[in-house]
Amino acid sequence: MTPVELEAAAARAFEAEFGARAEIAARAPGRVELLGNHTDYNGGLVMAAAVDRYTAVVGRVAPSSREARVYAANFEGSARFPLAEITRGPVGTWPNYVKGVVWAMHEALDAELTQGFEAAVAGEVPLGAGLSSSASLQASVAFFLLQAGIAPGKTVEQYVGDLSDTARMDLAMVLRRSENAFVGVSSGLLDQFSSLFGREDHALFLDCQSLEFARVPLGSPGPAIIVCDSKTSRKLADGMYNRRFAECNTVVDHFKARKGADAVSLLRDVTLEELESEWDALDPVCRKRARHVLTENERVRQGVAALRAGELKTFGKLISASHASSRDDFENSSPALDALVEIAETAPGFLGGKLSGAGWAGCTVNLVEADKADEFAEAVRRGYADRQGVAPDVHICRAAEGASSRSLAD
Ligand code: GLA
Fold first, then answer.
1. Mind listing the pLDDT tens digit for each residue in 203-220?
2. How many structural domains are present in the chain?
3. CATH, residue 245
4. What separation in Å is there between the alpha carbon of 188 and the centre of ligand 1?
5. 34 contact partners, CB below 8 Å, separation of at least 6
6. Which residues have CB under 6 Å of ligand 1?
7. 316 is in which domain, residue-wise?
């Protein structure tokens, strides 16, 4: 489905639910993480790409109302909440992401939205699969609100229309805060950044400490980005995610005690050499977690250089090395994800492959020569079904444009 078709599907759902025509449309893509697994909340380096699978939010301002009414077509469910009092619902439910955006925008602007709204959401980013359907939902809701012009204050005026990169970065941080403080997941900036900054046939580099970023060409035509869904879901992963966060912080605390709290606030402030020199004094599990993060930062550096030099094969090898490090040091892979990567390695056109996102379940991401994409997909489908007894979903994607919004008025 093209983004316009997706918006049209959301508009039909809106009409059926609210008995009126949608006036505003916004969309934002899912993302894959190409390099830099679990580096973001450690202040590290990441490389990602927005992919051509979107969430669309359409609707209209409800001028006389002081509440939000949202219908989610994928769940055939709706949510209704007063803007003046936004409370979190049951953990893991989609309305929290919508409410969290409104909450964080209130907080960032120190003012409430001036009018209510009605909206319908339709998405084609696979859920719970490591493609960050949640960030695409957040970013599309935020763009919807900005396009609607119902977020007050000067700050927002600069957002409307073609959002500058500076404003997009501000918004990414607001959305991260929404996920951390409202939804309750200690995630980093990777997902929101990627959904907002996407560019066709470009990878996205981000230094999560300095917020320096770059859109790096993947070549033209770019390689296929093939997402393979293991069909294992990660219901338990959120607990594991926060545990890894804590394990990384154990190492940060060790170095704070050694070097002083001023010198170290994130794992990024520790070098690989320092980690090695303290190896024996560190907890055996936590030091492996830190080694993964610090070697990932290095792989991102090398990955940017490889892409800039047009060396896609080198870039692919770094992606595969990232998977090995996640599997062995960070221990956030799974037998299903390892099987998918191993099968991909022997499939036509394979350049590199790794788990994407939090890990433990969900998807792998593979860089594949564009003209071999179909053959690759077929080989992985067959190989995984033979080995695991389950047919994987295989999504052939391209690096795509980030969030945008428009009026449907004419
Ligand atoms: C999830 C989080 C991201 C990032 C990745 C792992 O997708 O939402 O912030 O930490 O895991 O790199």
1. 999 999 999 999 999 998
2. 2
3. 3.30.70.890
4. 6
5. 47, 48, 49, 203, 303, 319, 365, 367
6. 33, 37-38, 40-41, 132, 187-188, 190-191, 357-358
7. 225-397
